[in-house]
Amino acid sequence: MGISLVKGQKISLAKDSGELSKVVMGLGWDPAKKKGFFGFFKKTDPIDLDASCCLFDESKNPVDMVWFRQLKSRDGSIIHTGDNLTGDGEGDDEQIIVDLTKVPAHVKYLVFTVNSFRGQTFNEVDNAYCRLVDSATQKEMARYSLSGGGNYTAMVMAKLYRHQGEWKMHALGDPANGQVIEQLLSVMVATL
Question: Distance between CA atoms of 84 and 104, rounded to whole angstroms?
């Protein structure tokens, strides 16, 4: 198990055994169980969280976006594995695979977001997390819990950024409102 990150924490992505080349950002969640009459749990509406990644240059201009409507960056360095509409199942419900060796040199920041496409708030989500995995070893390097509720529909969860020739991660956990990544641009820019 990797580092359990807290909001605002920064970690280096350098490996002891050499340079990190490919990482996977995983997102997982479950719909919150609601109590109905007589204390029994009642069925909840499906929760459709979406993992997204926006690429920014040094001037904080968006260069590209990877999300359920564009599953691959134009340069091919970042791939989204597909849209999960319910959060059902074990493990990661959505993944974004980043080949750090192929991210163009003019891209300085990769910002990862989670949004609720159907507009449910994070009060209605359980066991939500994002995690960073070394693709070569499948070792979890870091995990950030998104649970804890809140009356918001999105979160700017983390950013990867270049610093002195090395990739670093900054756990953000900034709540926002928006149902698609395009509605979160101003919030993302404010984190850079």
Answer: 28
